[in-house]
Amino acid sequence: MKRNILFLAMVAAALALGACASNTQTSDNKESTKETTGQYVDDATVTAKVKTAIASDVGVKAASNVNVETYRGVVQLSGFADSEDQASKAVTAAKKVSGVRSVKNDIRIKR
Description:
Layout: H1 2-18, H2 37-57, H3 60-65, E1 66-71, E2 74-81, H4 84-95, E3 102-109
Parallel strand pairs: 2-3
Antiparallel strand pairs: 1-2
């Protein structure tokens, strides 16, 4: 129940922040490197789902040590893990989330 409330709060915050993003395209109709509001909200939703998946599959402690950033469906994981197995499970959990195109693993192992 608490996890659902946390997820909904994260999505609501992402929607509120998404209203500040702008829809940008260059004058020659090429896509710019900035996200549209819809892309921003989609990425924020994917980020929240990945954090929830890591917390469920690996554990809350692991999820709190892993940073998740998403840009156009590409998820980057960074931070620290206690073991290689824990980092691998975090990557596996992220890859299972709907909307994830690929995962970049920048998690470092604590030594």
